[in-house]
Amino acid sequence: MLIIKLISNLKRKIIRNPLQFTMERLLVMSFGVFIFAGALLLMLPQATKGSPLGFIDALFTATSATCVTGLAVVDTGARFTLFGQLLILTMIQLGGLGIITFSTAFLYVLEGRLSLGSKDLLYETLSQGPIPNIKYLLKAVFFSTLIIEGIGSLILTLRFLTDMPFTQALCYGIFHAVSAFCNAGFALYSDSFSGYQGDLVVNFTICTLIILGGFGFIVIYEFPRLRNFNVGKLTFHSKLVLFVNVFLIGTGMLLIFFLELHNSLKDLSWGTKLLTAFFQSVTARTAGFNTLELGSMTNPSLFVLMLLMFIGASPASCGGGIKVTTAAVLVAFLKTRFRNQQDVNLFYRRIPAETVSKAISLMSFSMVLIILGTMLLLITELSGVSHPESRGMFLELLFESTSAFATVGLSVGLTPALSAAGRLIVIVLMFIGRLGPLTLVMSVGRKQKVYYKFAQEKVLVG
Fold first, then answer.
1. Which of 174, 189, 357, 454 is most enclosed, with most CB atoms within 10 A?
2. CB 289 within 8 Å of CB 209
3. Phi and psi of 317, rounded to 5°?
4. How do residues 8-28 score in pLDDT, each as one tens digit?
């Protein structure tokens, strides 16, 4: 509560002095402060079993939890006490829904109203546009989250009761429900959910929570309009999100199924094969759980997972990646250029030029960051090692960089073996990935109006 109050006081100062602070800088500072505070708390002796965590490991865990990634350098279930696990769960919940959202809601509870500055912050954080009833949206976000996570916790707890005592089943049910809805990927099992590979209840519950958390709060806000499954009452944004999500999950499931049919899936029953392929397709979209040993998967399958991770979830959601709407706009842009058309159209709607430009910039920045992160990891982890001795490591490091930037949490087992420098690189990738590269660039840059234009010249390209 103290951290939220400090952020709220800072937000008041920002609203009074908008020239000094912007929304982007507020997001960066709030996440940075919360991560640092979480790291200090995780270093307490009460948070871990055995010796306390070092600063780098604590910072890595706090960043991974707050940025809802799921990459872990230590075993969450075995290394942390109940207090430490509650700290991680708190960071997951605050990071998933957004620290700004929580601090604004905190002000609303104290003051009973929302200022114009607070409404602008919520517009930027949750919707990127005006909403008729912002108070209803705020309530809908929290109550829908509480209801969805509560139902998920109940189902998982009842299932875990067959395997463990009630208290442990309740803790496991709540932890994994919150982690799944926030697309965090933290699990209290050392092998994630590999032990429940063919379990329908666990698989479908976790997948449903992941999908709902990855839809975005605006889509959840419009769910009451889906009476009698009438999709026509949804906004264009929600229709696009639903369509692309169904397409990506279905395509990813089929690709993983056929690519792993004679490899990691060969000894499973047909029902378990389909269920496992479905689970991996869903969780690769920024959730980070797994029921397959990723290190045993084929290279084409790992590349498919990287593509799914790179695209990620939906805007204003708990997930990361470049977002499904960005990918849809980019596909529509390429289709327009191939047909030599001027306007970018998507589902019989014209997309504004500034949206197309933002999508291209976001993808370009994201690719550059992943390439840079991979290059730095190659230097820190494989410097002085010849190619024959490090064969296969390039794909693993690229997978790690993509997973960190897209805040997914999937790993081929490389994370605990990273050097201190490598862990710092992954920390930066997770931080930038959660905030978004454009947000970070805008937070350090200045918005200045340009009142002149340079002379125009043609350049040969292609």
1. 174
2. no
3. -120, -175
4. 555 555 545 544 455 566 677
